[in-house]
């Protein structure tokens, strides 16, 4: 998933170090011989790369694999304990900050109500102060990943005009954060960050065709196709929340009609509960998240009207899955964030809709699951963005203790 | 766009030869230094690769670039005249076979009416005989590309259950064709083949975020995102024809409801003309293609009812473009095949719908165009599939005249 543009010998070395780190990150422990074979590198080239990464502390040796005894069969692994990253997740009403090790384990999570601040500018200032305080308190924080709601225009740095994000629209995330600290800050659309988290932190490395379907205050999607994130020209691909499921349906602030987001996002559910106060009477006093949880709890206690609403939400979430199958054909769709907390009843209805509307061959080969990442999964995606950046740019973070002379003569390093 | 699985030194060499060929194919003429820089290869490694490709006739030297005079600034280019390929396009009612050089120029095109044969099996036999006759008549044909309507299940070899392809459903294209001749046969979904053709044969190499929107008897889509084709797990991604634009709309044989294909494919248009015979009275006697052309000609002559129908078709084609923008965010959508022959009036309406329904930032950055490939563009896609295979597997087609010893010691080849 590395993107390289300029190319010289220095870049080539960095590119191959990054590929080696990424391979090890996904496979846990591997020998030099296994890595060289998988990455189409000669043993000599891989030996040079692994020496550099070992000497800089980016990787460690884990001992012999399968008792072969020679140097090429010693296990290598990423040194995930050396550094920490921060993940920051922005949603309409919530800002979460998490401290993570490089394995993606949360060490602490803080939550701010964005709505406590009169303006986005004040919320942004508070986030900056909070991050600085965390960086004073904890050592070895080397990068910050941020997850923002889509459509996020990557090159420009701000989100496009959509209903559920109006308050953040005036914020240029790149301008605000990119140079705010003395460590790199990387900003990504939230569902794509979630897909990266599923891809990086899945305990059993599986297929590389994965869709992360984010059902939060907005609805987003991140898709990894054969190991590559689908980005689109401006970084606004896979905006499932603004794909229409009904060209004659409810108008959306994005300009489209019948956007999925208008039917099954936490905001749409909260709107529904505010219109009909007989279901969750104190709905207007609740946050979007609290209102959804109140509905799901009612349904869980057997309230038939709440169950009907959950079923209707599941139907629309299912329509979205049908589109995801036909548009992206992933082998796994992971459903996460607020609306996923409706749990099995929602998932059952989603699977039912998919069975009704998707080609049988695709139904059989597409797993649809609820996210198994911990409850702070939202902010975990932001951390994944930072970790992916480190794996992509190892030399910015890891400096060898003994400097090797990076000549083009491979024989110097051969053993 | 190379997919490599096993990995040893032999594969590594082939992989780098393929990358070099692909770079040259896209850039026309480049120096060794330019290629080495772009592909992250050392000058020594690139020199070895280019010697191999020159010696096998895969590439040629075109003379000095920018008068620098040294060997590394001599232009290299793919030798597109050495071989020819066949492209075979299957549609519901038509089978087209084209003979192409490696630059993608058609040298001859033959058309069979599939409906002339009582069964698909007999049509398949006729195609095989036709291909064998062409191979006897013309020399240097080294590969055959085939384009079949989607959803095409790549690993299994047949198309999935959908209305516009019922007659082909029982045909296993892989089993029928993969070993039918003594040259490789490569089978691809038709719209993806069309996207490859746009990508390979575009006279001005442009951005690498391209969608080819095939409006034929069926509706298909092929998307290239940052230089990679989006395939999905089974090869059935980007099936825009079966993405619903109206979950309460017309049921489709694929199981879904409101599939785009039911509103603006050539088959849907022909169905409409057969229902209301007052527009094109002899419609039932025409092929799908002929019926559409008759309608477009009426509209062109100022028939207001025909114009209204073209406008309605453009509206639905536009809804599809809106979904393509939100799902794939390409920088260019190329509209091709039968329905594209409606020309500018259709394109105007499509652009109007996109302006109404897509975020302004995306409208500005997404070009929507009619295909500029020659009228036999359909079969050109099939040829592109064969040519891409050759670029991916150079050693199966090009053998060096002087055999180089492929040791890992680069110094042998250094100059």
From TrEMBL, chains A, B:
Top-level taxon of the source organism? Bacteria
Question: InterPro entries under this entry?
Answer: ATPase_NBD (IPR043129), ROK (IPR000600), ROK_cs (IPR049874), WH-like_DNA-bd_sf (IPR036388), WH_DNA-bd_sf (IPR036390)
The cross-references to Pfam families, in alphabetical order and at most eight, read: ROK
Family (UniProt): Belongs to the ROK (NagC/XylR) family.
Tell me the protein's name: ROK family transcriptional regulator
Question: Which species does the entry assign this protein to?
Answer: Bifidobacterium pseudolongum
């Amino acid at each position: 998933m590395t993107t390289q543009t300029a190319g010289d010998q220095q870049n080539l070395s960095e590119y191959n170090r990054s590929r080696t780190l990424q391979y090890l990150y996904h496979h846990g422990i591997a020998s030099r011989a296994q890595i060289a074979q998988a990455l189409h590198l000669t043993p000599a080239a891989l030996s040079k790369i692994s020496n550099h990464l070992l000497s800089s502390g980016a990787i460690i040796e884990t001992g012999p694999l399968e008792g072969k005894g020679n140097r090429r069969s010693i296990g290598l692994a990423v040194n995930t304990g050396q550094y920490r990253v921060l993940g920051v997740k922005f949603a309409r009403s919530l800002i979460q900050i998490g401290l993570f090790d490089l394995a993606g384990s949360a060490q602490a999570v803080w939550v701010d109500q964005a709505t406590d601040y009169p303006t986005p500018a004040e919320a942004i200032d508070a986030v900056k102060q909070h991050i600085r305080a965390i960086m004073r308190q904890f050592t070895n924080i080397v990068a910050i990943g941020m997850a923002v709601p889509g459509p996020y225009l990557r090159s420009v740095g701000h989100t496009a005009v959509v209903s559920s994000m109006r308050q953040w629209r005036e914020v240029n995330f790149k301008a605000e954060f990119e140079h705010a600290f003395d460590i790199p800050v990387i900003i990504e659309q939230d569902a794509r960050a979630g897909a990266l988290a599923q891809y990086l932190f899945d305990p059993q490395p599986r297929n590389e065709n994965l869709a992360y379907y984010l059902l939060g205050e907005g609805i987003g999607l991140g898709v990894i196709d054969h190991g590559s994130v689908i980005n689109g020209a401006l970084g606004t691909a896979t905006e499932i929340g603004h794909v229409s499921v009904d060209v004659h349906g409810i108008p959306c602030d994005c300009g489209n009609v019948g956007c999925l987001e208008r039917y099954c996002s936490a905001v749409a559910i909260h709107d529904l509960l505010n219109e009909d106060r007989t279901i969750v009477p104190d709905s207007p006093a609740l946050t979007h998240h609290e209102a959804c949880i109140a509905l799901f709890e009612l349904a869980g206690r057997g309230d038939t009207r709440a169950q009907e609403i959950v079923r209707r939400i599941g139907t629309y979430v299912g329509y979205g899955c049908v589109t995801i199958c036909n548009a992206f054909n992933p082998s796994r769709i992971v459903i996460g964030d607020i609306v996923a907390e409706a749990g099995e009843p929602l998932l059952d209805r989603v699977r039912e809709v998919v069975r009704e509307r998707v080609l049988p061959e695709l139904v059989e080969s597409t797993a649809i699951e609820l996210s198994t990442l911990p409850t702070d999964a939202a902010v975990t995606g932001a951390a994944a963005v930072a970790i992916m950046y480190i794996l992509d740019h190892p030399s910015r973070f890891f400096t060898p203790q003994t400097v090797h002379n990076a000549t083009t003569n491979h024989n110097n390093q051969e053993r």
